[in-house]
Amino acid sequence: MGIPGPTELILILAVVLLIFGAKRIPEIMGGVGQGIKSLKKNLEQEEEPAKPVQTEATAIPSPGSKPVEPS
């Protein structure tokens, strides 16, 4: 199973054209393009380190402070 040749690619494109129609293909390709842009954006955001959120339960008490009792 290698890369399809030009004859196979033309056959696949003809079947896709018959199934979806000429008007629908640009809409599908636009959706694919938006999905790729969204994926790239999320990958770039993931590379940035996330800042840890410090809550009252995870906060380190300062010396001399009174302990907080759970309610």
Shape: rod-shaped
How many helical stretches? 2
Regarding quaternary structure, what we see is single chain
- Strands, total number: 0
Structural class: mainly alpha
Describe the sheet with the most strands: none
Average pLDDT score: 80
Beta-strand level of the residues, as a percent range? under 5%
Whole-number radius of gyration? Answer: 27 Å
Would you identify the regions where 5 or more consecutive residues have pLDDT less than 50?
none
User: Residue share in helices?
Assistant: 40-55%
CA-CA gap between termini: 65 Å
Give, in order, the helices and strands: HH
Care to describe what's here?
There is one protein chain. With 71 residues, this protein is an all-alpha fold. The chain has a domain at 20-45. 55% of the residues lie in helices and 0% in strands. The protein contains two helices and no strands. The protein has helices spanning 6-20, 24-47. The longest helix is centred in the middle third of the chain and has 24 residues, at 24-47. 0% of the residues are buried.
Blueprint (SSEs and pairs):
Layout: H1 6-20, H2 24-47
Core attributes:
71 residues; mainly alpha; 2 helices
Short description:
By secondary structure, the chain is mainly α.
